[in-house]
Amino acid sequence: MELFEKCYSFTRAREAMKTGYYPYFIPLSDTEGTEVTIDGRQLIMIGSNNYLGLTTHPKVREAAIEAVQQYGTSCTGSRFLNGTLRLHNQLEEELADFVGKEAALVFSTGYQVNVGTISALVGRGDAVITDKEDHASIIDGCQMALGEMSRFRHSDMDSLERALSRCKPDQGKLVVIDGVYSMGGDIAPLPDIVPLCKKYDARLMVDDAHSVGVLGDCGRGTANYYGLTDDVDLIMGTFSKSFASLGGFIAGDEAVIHYIQHHARSLIFSASMPAANVAACLAALDIMRSDPSLSQRVCDVAARMREGYQALGYDTGASETPVVPIIIGDDDKTFMMWRALFDAGVYTNPIIPPAVPPSKSLLRTSYMATHTDEQMERVLTLFEQVGKQVGAI
User: Fold this and answer.
1) pTM of the prediction?
2) Which residues belong to CATH 3.90.1150.10 in the chain?
3) CA 197 to CA 224: how far, in whole Å?
4) 58-290 belongs to CATH 3.40.50.300
5) Taking CA atoms, which of 72, 194, 224, 244 is between 20 and 30 Å from 277?
C-alpha cells in the first residue's frame, strides 16, 4: 500500500462529523472552570481534570502573569542545556518535600515523564510489568524501553504475581501502575501490590496523575493515602490537572532521579516548561498545602454525584474518586447520550474501545471542588431526562 493510502481511506471521523456525532476537538471560546462557552452556548463542564478548580484562581493567574513579565514566554531550550530556571529547581524541591521523596525532576508534559522515566530505567535484560488499564504514556514508555514488557489483569493480584514469578530472580524489575485509573476512577490496591513487589524484589512506580491534589493529606497522592510513601520507589504526577498548568514530574531517591535526569531522552531533547507554567504550579502547590478543604470538597462532590447516578439506575463501576464513569455499554447509545447531554447543556467525554474494553463504552465524567450544588442538581436532572430518552435507564 502506498504510504498515504491509509490517510485517504480513513473516513470514520468525517462520517461522524457529518452526522453531528463527532465529540472530539470541540473548540471552547471561554471557560470559567465549571462552565464553558461553545458557539455562544454555556455548558456545565463535567469532563475536565481541573479537580481543584485552580485554573481560574486569582493567586495562580497572578503568579503566571508575573512570571511572564519577568522571564518572558519561553525558555527556548532544554533543561539539559539553557532551559533550566531557578524556578524549576524551586518547584522540584517543593514537590519532593510534598510527596515525601528525596528529589524530583520536572518535565514539560506528563506524557514525557512516563516515556522518559521508563525508557531510561528499563534496559536490555530488565523487565517492566504494567496493569492492563495503565495510561497510554506508560505503555509507550515500555515499548520504547529495551527490556521485556508484560501486563497483568486490572488490579488482579494473582495475575500480577504470575507476571512477577515469570521474571528471572536476578532480573531488574519495575512494576508501573496508575494510582487512580483515568477511566474507571478506581484506586490501585497498593497495600496488596507493595508486598508482592518486595517478595519478588521489584521496584514500584505509581502514576499519580489523577491522584495528586485529590487523595491523601492535602492531596499528596495514593502512597500517602495508604501510608505507604516509603514503600513506593517512584511517584509520578502531572500539572495539567490539580496543578492547573502543564507539565509533570517524577520523584524518588536522589540517585535515581539524578540518573533519569541524565538519561531520559524526552527531557534532554525537549524544551523546558515555560516560567509561567512553573509559577502557576508553585502557586497551586501553595494553595494545596494551605487549604486541605479543596481535596475534601472535590471528593465530597464526586460522592454526591456518584450516589445520584446510582439512584437513577446508572452503573458507575468501581469509581472511588472524582473520576466517575457512566457505563452505557453500547457504542451508539453512548454517542446518543453524549449528543443529547451536549445539546441540553452538559459537557461529558464519550469513551469507546479500545480506550475501554469491548461492550464497556462509557461517558467519562469528572468533578471539581468548585462545582456548585445548583450545578450538580441540574446535571442529575438532565441525566435522568436524557437517560430515559435514549433508553440508558
Assistant:
1) 0.96
2) 10-45+292-390
3) 18
4) no
5) 224
